[in-house]
Design goal:
The complex is a heterodimer of chains A (113) and B (116).
Chain A: E1 3-6, E2 11-14, E3 19-21, E4 23-26, E5 32-38, E6 45-50, E7 56-59, E8 62-65, E9 75-77, E10 86-93, E11 102-103, E12 107-112
Parallel strand pairs in A: 2-12
Antiparallel strand pairs in A: 1-4, 3-9, 5-6, 5-10, 7-8, 8-9, 10-11, 10-12
Chain B: E1 4-7, E2 10-13, E3 19-25, E4 30-38, E5 44-51, E6 57-58, E7 67-73, E8 76-81, E9 90-98, E10 105-107, E11 111-115
Parallel strand pairs in B: 2-11
Antiparallel strand pairs in B: 1-3, 3-8, 4-5, 4-9, 5-6, 7-8, 9-10, 9-11
Classes of the chains: A mainly beta (113), B mainly beta (116).
């Protein structure tokens, strides 16, 4: 079956530091990959996605590249801000399965001044 | 746009009672809604998929008689936890997919259920 593994948090960084949150997956076929972000008190929001190998998803300075050879979709940002503090979820969906999502456990990011 | 609300945000109920959680799409029509459950430090687990006007499809291992799902309109789905037990205490999250819209789920803020 499908599964997603994320690095455990919390991750604490100073403002303007470089961020990497690792995500690897196991899936049949060719899944689509997603990063969701959950800010305090809010629902999950789609941050970025990639639907095929070597695609790079990007949004708000965050990037992730779909690496089929390493089954990874690591999230990166060159310079984090305090406002990026949130929980980040990696997820996958097999095409044609009515968009059923399989999530990782989430990684809490805390950015300090 | 694409806002999903849940009510209540927190609920405490006694063992043996039933509790209903509502999920509403506020500014769009949702033909499909999803219900998830999240345990502490665990990932979101899909419980069921509901389509407006039809029976919900439950994931393996989820008791359909215990977790009743109704999706009677294009903007409202409800999850009723029947005869609740302490092990049902969890964080329940819904999401909705817009009718005819992009292949994306919009998530509600979640409901914290505590059964005493």
């Amino acid at each position: 079956g499908n599964s997603v593994t994320q690095m455990e948090g919390p991750v604490t960084l100073s403002e303007e530091a470089f961020l990497t949150i690792n995500c690897t997956y196991t899936a049949t076929g060719y899944p689509s990959l997603f990063w969701y972000v959950q800010y305090p008190g809010e629902g999950l929001q789609l941050l970025l996605k990639a639907t095929k190998a070597d695609d790079k998803g990007s949004n708000k300075g965050f990037e992730a590249t779909y690496r089929k050879e390493t089954t990874s979709f690591h999230l990166e940002k060159g310079s984090v801000q305090v406002s990026d503090s949130a929980v980040y979820f990696c997820a996958l969906s097999n095409t044609g399965t009515a968009s059923k999502l399989t999530f990782g456990t989430g990684t809490r990011l805390q950015v300090t001044l | 746009g694409a806002v999903v609300s849940q009510h209540p945000s927190r609920v405490i109920c006694k063992s043996g009672t039933s509790v209903k959680i509502e999920c509403r799409s506020l500014d769009f029509q949702a033909t499909t809604m999803f219900w998830y459950r999240q345990f502490p430090k665990k990932s979101l687990m899909l419980m069921a998929t509901s389509n407006e006007g039809s029976k919900a499809t439950y994931e393996q291992g989820v008791e359909k008689d215990k977790f009743l799902i109704n999706h009677a309109s294009l903007t409202l789905s409800t999850l009723t936890v029947t005869s609740a037990h302490p092990e049902d205490s969890s964080f329940y999250i819904c999401s909705a997919r817009e009718a005819g819209g992009p292949y994306e789920q919009y998530f509600g803020p979640g409901t914290r259920l505590t059964v005493t």
